[in-house]
């Protein structure tokens, strides 16, 4: 890590909470007309907020409330709608099912169930975690009357999963024709690269 990039990271950490930085992608610096400039893409952990109950958990809780039977209840529970539809369609009235009930000795039970007719609980997969995506730019004047001038700007762009951030970074590199490897730092690596503040 060269001195300019270390200075760039320190400037980013002053504008963004360093403890929330998940990863950073640093593009190669460009020198033109006595000015050096550089760009970084930062993925920032979202602010911690209390997450609402997942939709899948709500559906499971609702189903448990509907299908549960108290310990002191008398008599069998009502058959489910899925079971009733299967019975009407003739699935349970097949010859194989009749022979099974004959073996069990409970031919007349209207509450006989078949494992294949039990409703399946489908829980949607959790969406990928999204991060706040920021771009950081520095401009360092190397020559001329403003020699030594240093400017850094950080802009919040959007929110996206880390895989999307990586794909966008690679796409920008290909379109720009930049052959230099992009430096990728995890949050821990970035924090370790920050200069240690001088103690008083």
Write the topology of this structure.
Layout: H1 3-15, E1 21-26, E2 30-32, E3 35-44, H2 55-67, H3 81-89, H4 95-104, E4 131-141, E5 150-160, H5 162-176, E6 183-186, H6 187-193
Antiparallel strand pairs: 1-3, 1-6, 2-3, 3-4, 4-5
Structure description:
- This protein has 200 residues and is of the alpha+beta class.
- It folds into two domains: 3-46 and 130-193, no CATH class; 81-128, no CATH class.
- Helix content is 34%, strand content 22%.
- It has six helices and six strands; from the N terminus they run H-E-E-E-H-H-H-E-E-H-E-H.
- The chain has helices spanning 3-15, 55-67, 81-89, 95-104, 162-176, 187-193; strands at 21-26, 30-32, 35-44, 131-141, 150-160, 183-186.
- Strands 1, 2, 3, 4, 5 and 6 form a six-stranded antiparallel sheet that branches.
- Strand 2 and strand 3 (35-44) form a beta hairpin.
In brief:
This protein is of the alpha+beta class.
Number of strands: 6
Tell me the fraction of residues in β-strands, as a range. 15-25%
The number of domains: 2
Largest sheet composition = 6 strands, antiparallel
- The number of helical segments is 6
End-to-end gap: 26 Å
Question: H/E series, N to C?
Answer: HEEEHHHEEHEH
* Structural class designation: alpha+beta
Low-confidence stretches: 64-103
Backbone shape: elongated
Mean pLDDT equals: 74
The rounded Rg comes to 31 Å
The amount of helix comes to 25-40%
